[in-house]
Design goal:
Layout (H helix, E strand, L loop, with lengths): L1 H20 L2 E5 L2 E2 L3 E3 L5 E2 L1 H12 L4 E5 L5 H6 L5 E7 L2 H4 L3 E7 L3 E6 L8 H4 L3 E5 L3 H10 L4 E5 L2 H9 L5 E5 H8 L7 E8 L2 H4 L3 E5 L4 H16 L2 H9 L9
Helix pairs in contact: 2-10, 2-11
Length: about 260
C-alpha cells in the first residue's frame, strides 16, 4: 500500500512538473494598443506582450505567442489553442464562470472622449440621445450599457480600432474605452481632435478586480507560477521598467 502511495505521489509530481517542460502558449488579441498590437514588421508589441515575456523569463518557461480575435479569445483558450490569455482582460464574475485568472497585473478605469469643445456632460442628462462607441465584449461595453444604455445608443465594435475610426469620422458622438487605451489614441494624430472628459469610472460591478491573466479552470499549478512570477517582477524592478516605458504612473494600483 505504501509503495502504491509513493508511486501515485511520484506520478502527480511528474504531471505537475510537465508544465515546466512544455512550451507555454500565450494568447493575445494583437489589436489593442498600447497593450497588444502588431507593428509594421508583423511583430507583437505592447505592455501586455512585454509583461508576458517577463513572466515567462521569471518562470524559466519557454513561451510562444498566439493571436485570436477578442470575441473568440475565451473559446480559443477553452479549446486549448493556447494556455493563457494575456490581453488586458478584466477579472469579472461573468468571466470567472468560464475561466480562472491569475492575480491582477494592472488596473484600469473606464474613460470617455469627446470632440474638443463639445462640452458633453457624462451624466444621464448629458448623454441622452448620444451615440457612444465601445469595443464589444469588454467591461467598457458592460459599464456603458449598464449605466447609460437606457438613455444613449451604445454601438459595439469588433475591435477598438474600428470604434476609433467611426469616432474620427463623426459617426458616433463619444468614445468610451479603457483609460490607458483612450489616452494612447488621443495622443495620436487621428485622435488629436478629441479630448478626455468626465470622471474615471471603476465600479467593481463592471470593471471587476483588475486585469488578470486568463487560464483554464483547474490549472492551479500554472496559476501559482503566474502569481509568483508577477510578484517577482514587481519586486525586482522589471515591472517598473516596463511600466515606465508606456505610462508616467504606476498602473498596478493598490497592492
Amino acid at each position: 500500500m505504501k509503495i502504491i502511495s509513493l508511486l501515485l505521489m511520484a506520478t502527480l509530481a511528474v504531471s505537475s512538473m510537465s508544465l515546466h517542460a512544455e512550451k507555454l502558449r500565450m494568447g493575445t488579441e494583437g489589436a489593442y494598443a498600447p497593450f497588444n498590437s502588431i507593428d509594421k514588421n508583423g511583430k507583437l508589441v505592447g505592455f501586455d506582450i512585454e509583461i508576458g515575456d517577463a513572466l515567462c523569463k521569471a518562470m524559466n518557461q519557454e513561451c510562444e505567442w498566439v493571436t485570436a480575435d477578442w470575441d473568440g479569445i475565451i473559446p480559443a483558450l477553452l479549446a486549448k489553442k493556447f494556455d493563457t490569455i494575456v490581453a488586458s482582460m478584466s477579472i469579472t464574475k461573468e468571466r470567472q464562470e468560464k475561466i480562472d485568472f491569475s492575480g491582477k497585473y494592472y488596473t484600469s478605469p473606464v474613460k470617455f472622449a469627446q470632440p474638443k469643445g463639445a462640452n458633453i456632460e457624462i451624466t444621464e442628462k448629458g448623454l441622452k440621445g448620444k451615440i457612444i462607441g465601445v469595443q464589444g465584449g469588454t467591461v467598457t461595453e458592460n459599464f456603458v450599457k449598464g449605466v447609460f444604455g437606457k438613455i444613449a445608443e451604445v454601438k459595439a465594435y469588433g475591435a477598438q480600432d474600428e470604434a476609433n475610426l467611426d469616432f474620427v469620422s463623426g459617426r458616433i458622438d463619444l468614445l468610451a474605452a479603457d483609460s490607458f487605451v483612450l489616452y494612447d489614441f488621443l495622443a495620436t494624430k487621428d485622435g488629436s481632435f478629441a479630448e478626455a472628459t468626465g470622471p474615471d469610472f471603476d465600479d467593481p460591478k463592471y470593471t471587476g478586480e483588475g486585469i488578470g491573466i486568463g487560464i483554464r479552470k483547474g490549472e492551479e499549478a500554472l496559476k501559482k507560477m503566474l502569481n509568483k512570477a508577477i510578484a517577482q517582477i514587481r519586486a525586482d524592478g522589471t515591472y517598473k521598467k516596463i511600466n515606465d516605458k508606456y505610462f508616467p504612473f504606476d498602473v498596478f494600483g493598490a497592492e
